[in-house]
Design goal:
Helices cover 33% and strands 25% of the residues. α4 crosses α6, α5 crosses α8 and α10 packs across α14. The structure holds cytidine-5'-triphosphate. The site of cytidine-5'-triphosphate has 17 residues, from α12, β16 and α13.
Length: 405
Amino acid sequence: MELAGKHIVLGLTGGVACYKGAELARELVKAGATVQVVMTASAQQFVTPLLLQSLTGRPVATTQWDTTQPNAMAHINLSREADAILVAPATADFIARLAQGRCDELLSLLCVARPAERCGLLVAPAMNREMWAHPATQRNAQQVQQDGAVLLGPASGSQACGEIGDGRMLEPLEIRDALIAHFQPKVLKGRRVLITAGPTFEAIDPVRGITNRSSGKMGFAIARAAAEAGAQVTLVAGPVHLPTPWGVTRLDVESARQMHDAVLPLAPSHDLFIATAAVADWRVQAPSDAKIKKVAGQGAPVLAMTENPDILAAVAALPQAPTCVGFAAETHDIERHAREKLQRKRLQLVVANHGPSTFGRDENELLLIDAKGTTALPAADKLTLARHLVAHIAQHHPCRTPPSN
Ligand code: CTP
């Protein structure tokens, strides 16, 4: 219920993506929002107000000449109630109208009438790729952003017209998550954050390997929370089956050495490094190029192991090191082991938890351990904990300024 208590005006304008707008309305309701739909005349060519009313439980507003409103000022009433206005889909024509500040139909009228300092305007373009690429549309899209709107997308891919390119509306769940992010405090605005997550996979031969039980959920939640807080986030992920959080750039790797080689060149240009990955401490010294066959009477193969590089310690030792946050998954003496790790790896913060009770779960509880003391974050879902962690870092560990080049 991430949008509980929020009143959202959802505007639909006339494009094929109106069918996704209807799905979005449902997702926003499921997330706890009160959704007031406003449709332009063209949107009503694609889907009916009846459908949107059924999905949201509220009559759809379609005209500024609504005499059922006691003051006959639908545009004022709708925009004063709203915590945000979300236009999805937004056509090229609607974006042009917004850029000009036109007020001759209800949706553009209430966008202009909104109290901008407390009611954000988010716009999800949806159109053919040539229409999106047209200089007029690009100019208008820039203008609406300069005027304070947030543009969501568009995405690239196959289009209703059969062409392939930029202009697809984002998926309803991506738009929902962007709206949730919009309401989070921007405590890491302008910061660059690098995060490792998930397990690593160390090959034995082309079909076998050594890995661990890390699901990556905590690291992905932290990546999402950092992006919601306004940071530019790069997530280096081991093999996990998790969707990339909204607004996060993701690099997939497999082994500890691949993770090390991806992270080290990126680290100096980041303000903050959060190492959540469960990196394998050892790898097989000489993985076989061919599948190791079972031969009767020869017994089990003996695998010689060698140590993997410590990614976190290597980043913390860089001359241009970002603020470094490590994780410690322990089974006993959690605080003592974590404090030892803080000093040994020369970190600013260690996030400690009880390893076996967190792997793969959606909930966790954490201890935040730094030179000044220990802060306990009580049991909660991983996204809630991630948001608290991000707030704690922003407050207690101001990021070092990255080099200007
Ligand atoms: N880490 C890393 N590279 C490694 C190993 C660990 O970046 N090769 C990071 C992890 O992402 C985590 C922290 O270091 O942030 C964990 O430290 P580590 O010493 O590996 O702790 P554990 O393996 O959990 O425990 P221990 O060493 O105490 O057995």
